[in-house]
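Exercise 7.
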Amino acid sequence: MDFSRFIKGHVTDCHVHPWSPWRSDKRLGEKELGEKAAELETVMTHSRLSQMHIYGNPDHSTLYLKVAKPGLFYAGGYAPWSFETKRFKDVDWPRYVESLVELGYDGVGEMGAKPVLRVEHTPLDSPSYEGFWESCQAEGLPVVCHVGDPEEFWSEDQTPQWAKTRGWGYYRGDYPTLEELYSEAVNVLSRYPRLKVVFPHFLFLSPHIERLGDLLQRYTNAYVDIAPGVELLYNISRRRDEWKTFFTRHSDRILLGTDIGMSKTIPEHLARVWLLRCFLESEKEFYTPSEADELLTRYELPYVGLDLARASLEDIYSGNFRRLWGDKPREVNLSAAASSSEELGNVEVAKALRSLL
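Solution. The predicted structure, written as tokens, is:
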């Protein structure tokens, strides 16, 4: 994978998971944190990324990375996914969101509605989340909100076996429909017009260019990232010329995102960056690199690059991110972050944070 031919300039990856979004291992310590910081810095160096927006878990481990590698990382604070809200029944949302800012988080998420059983799902537009959206809007914090999954996962015949193995098959009638999840997201956008929301994976609307265009036109507070689901780049390639026009017209609403963390090794991380940069910057036909992780499908038909103009690339690579998150990451309150982490039972992370004081 050759990165030398890609344009030089500021490039921010808005969608990186240092660890699993639902990791509960409380043994994470200074050694593991340092190794992760070095791993992600290596990826940035080799792929010509300038910065990453990394997603937080309640332990505040991402704040360690922010301080250990100054200027390289923005961090999104933790908020409950739709299946986690029972633990947040009596939360004071204004104070909670304010505390994220005080600790040094730059925004919120990734959170949202990854499909789960209907009995476990709390709608994003329900009273449980009302104070959360209000508070993020008041604080001006951007929220990265995952909604849905590829539409074929609601069809037993179309769901790939590897997705079924992971429990990503929602066709038995006991999950919310994709349309229900979209309705929740639209209601949030309508109720909170100053709330800044980034929907990963193009909101899984890559098969429906007209629908996504209409949504972006109606809701000026909505943004999308191009983190590659199994289908995104493939669907866009099948209507390449129409999508090139779309990307050019809406370049101020699209962000680069890789979903690094679904990949597990440095070569796999690099393959995700290469795939997206090749797709945006070249006009050639190409395939999923052999180094890529198994979640990136190997299709028989090729991807077809969009060969976007420099101005559009600058929007997608950094301009939109800076407009939403600011020109530089917030300062971290290390002492407060360590105390909070310790209160949550994450003794080793707290110790690591204090080592940076």
